């Protein structure tokens, strides 16, 4: 389970006095606990943890952009190292080609053929893909596929 891996890595980082990694994982664990509390659960499942990790990754990416604009390269570099730590906990993302294959499967199973079917198609794809791909990329590929006639 992902939560156990994060906890074990946090303990290892503390033992090895890796302050950057222990800090990142501490914030991640706190965020996971906050989300679990908000959902009135004891702990999050792996897919919910991945959502929390992606949220923190997005925050780091925004910070990197702001620090770069603000001419603070040392802070941007720190955020990049934190980003790399967080990315290590995400499953491998699907390639565009793999997503296109799934899109074709769902189009065949749902009979979708026009842009008005995009919502139904995205709903089915979200179930199949879950968190293994960037939602914007999937949406763009679906839009591209539905707008070009076969």
Average predicted local confidence, pLDDT: 89
CATH architecture title of the largest domain: Orthogonal Bundle
Largest sheet: none
Terminal Cα span: 42 Å
Helical segment count: 7
CATH topology of the largest domain: Hypothetical Protein Yqey, Chain: A, domain1
Protein topology:
Blueprint: H1 2-15, H2 19-38, H3 46-69, H4 73-87, H5 96-110, H6 118-129, H7 135-147
Structure description:
The chain has 150 residues and is mainly alpha-helical. The chain contains 7 helices and no strands. Helix 5 packs across helix 6, helix 5 crosses helix 7 and helix 6 crosses helix 7.
Quick rundown:
Helix content is 75%, strand content 0%.
